[in-house]
Amino acid sequence: MHSFYGSAVAAVALLAARATAHGIATAMVHWPDGTFYHGYDPSYQYQKPPPVVIGWGIPNDLTNTFISPSGYATPDIVCHLGATPAGIAAPVNAGDVLEIQWNKWPASHKGPVLDYLANCNGPCETADKTKLQFFKISEAGLLDAAKNQWAADELLANNLSWSVRLPSDIAPGNYVLRHEMIALHAAGNANGAQNYPFCFNLVINGNGTATPTGIPAVSFYKEKDPGILFDLFTKFTTYVIPGPPLYSDALTAAQTKPGAIKATASGVASYVAPAGGGAAAPTRAVRSPAGHAVREAAPAVETPAGVPNAAPAAPAAAEATVAAVVDQQPAEPLPTTLLTAVLKVKGRA
């Protein structure tokens, strides 16, 4: 039974949370080449035309809200409130590290960080989110019970970033990366947990053949799971991370402060496997922010001068360029099959 003190503290925490903004996973950096990709921000809907980015659209999330346990059986738990597929994808390799960047996160919102993958089995731009079968590739929860240290605290300490390593054995194709934080400050009460899922489209290249079995996101959690109905303000020594089991060949990534961004890109269109299998470059046209169809991704956004380790400005409408223009290649360029993803890049001081 929860103590009166614990319930009172939880109530205060809930009221404080409602008075402050939460957070959004707004960008991704691909390592080892240090290429920055914009995710989605609800403010993009006010740009005409809105930028095409790798993050799934959530224009209804104007208040940085969350998905509560009462919404676990609804499509909103997949990629957040009213999410729609991203228009392009980040080209990456199996085994690479992806750094997810958040715009903010309250220190009071302690809890786990989880990452999932789902193969779209076709273009992710037109994927039906209710049919995506996700498998978990990363999870972290309570790190130090004595210090009340959680994965969310580690993300906050590392400049609002979290790194996840893609499995090295998965088959190439179009995937959705589902990145999620669960805030537990009010989870001692029924329907008090707060889920913040965000999705990014990926084109994964590699020589793997594994096709891990997944489940729909609506099957991840139940309202009374021990990792969902959890009183953060009582004495505890363990925490059961919610969701399906971790993929057996999942890889770990070190959680460190972000490195310097070396390049900026928008993304590519769908992966198309050639006859007979194997990897292939994306071939469908991408619509640029200016509304011009091009074979490469939309124009790059340059990093603000003199601002080390800062995210580039939000994508803006610009005249599309059919040929990719390169000022300075990333330190470790992508494979030749994915070089069409590299846009105009600019070294960062």
UniProtKB/TrEMBL annotation:
Positions of the Auxiliary Activity family 9 catalytic domain: 26-236
Subcellular location as annotated: Secreted
UniProtKB keywords: Carbohydrate metabolism, Cellulose degradation, Copper, Disulfide bond, Metal-binding, Monooxygenase, Oxidoreductase, Polysaccharide degradation, Secreted, Signal
Catalysed transformations (reactions): [(1->4)-beta-D-glucosyl]n+m + reduced acceptor + O2 = 4-dehydro-beta-D-glucosyl-[(1->4)-beta-D-glucosyl]n-1 + [(1->4)-beta-D-glucosyl]m + acceptor + H2O
Pfam families attached to this UniProt entry: AA9
InterPro entries, per database record: AA9, AA9_LPMO
Cofactor: Cu(2+)
Keyword hit for rRNA-binding: no
EC number of this enzyme: 1.14.99.56
Annotated family: Belongs to the polysaccharide monooxygenase AA9 family.
Protein known as: lytic cellulose monooxygenase (C4-dehydrogenating)
Organism listed in the record: Sporothrix stenoceras
